[in-house]
C-alpha cells in the first residue's frame, strides 16, 4: 500500500477506554490520518458507514458481544482487518485466522508487525525487519 496509510482512517472497536486511547495514539504516531473510536458494535457500524475507513482494528470481545458481525461487514467491503485480543490462537475461530492477530497486552512492535501483515507499509523507520541499532561499546 505504500504511503497510502497516511490518508487512511482506522476504525478501532475497543470497549476498554485505556486500550482504545493507546491504540489511537500509536496509530496516529505511525502516520495514519484519523482514528475513529467505537466502544461497541453499533457505533462501529455507524462509523463504518459514515467514515469508510481503510483499516479496522478490532477487539474480539466487546463486553458480552463478539465483534465478528462487524468484521464480516469490513471483509465484505474489502477493508483490511487486524484483531487485537486476549484470546489464544487455538480459541480463535478458524475462518478469521487469515487476518493478523495482535495479542493483548500489545506493544507497538507487535502492532507494527500486524499492520505489515495486513499490507500497510509504515516506512523504513517502522519496518519490523529492520535490525535494531547497535549501541556503542
Architecture, according to CATH? 3-Layer(aba) Sandwich
| Widest beta sheet: strand line-up | 2-1-3-6-7
Outline: globular
The poorly predicted ranges are 131-137
Report Rg.
Answer: 15 Å
Q: Provide a count of the helices.
A: 4
Write down the secondary-structure element order.
Answer: EHEHEEEHEEH
Distance between the termini: 39 Å
CATH topology-level fold name: Rossmann fold
At a glance:
This protein is an alpha/beta fold. The chain is built from 4 helices and 7 strands. It has helices spanning 17-29, 41-51, 68-76, 108-117, and strands at 9-13, 34-38, 55-59, 61-62, 65-66, 81-85, 101-103.
Would you kindly provide a written description of the structure presented here, covering whatever features stand out?
- The protein is α/β, with parallel strands linked by helices and 137 residues long.
- The protein has one domain (2-117): Rossmann fold (3-Layer(aba) Sandwich), CATH 3.40.50.2300.
- The chain has helices at 17-29, 41-51, 68-76, 108-117; strands at 9-13, 34-38, 55-59, 61-62, 65-66, 81-85, 101-103.
- The strands form two sheets. It has a five-stranded parallel beta sheet, sandwiched between helices.
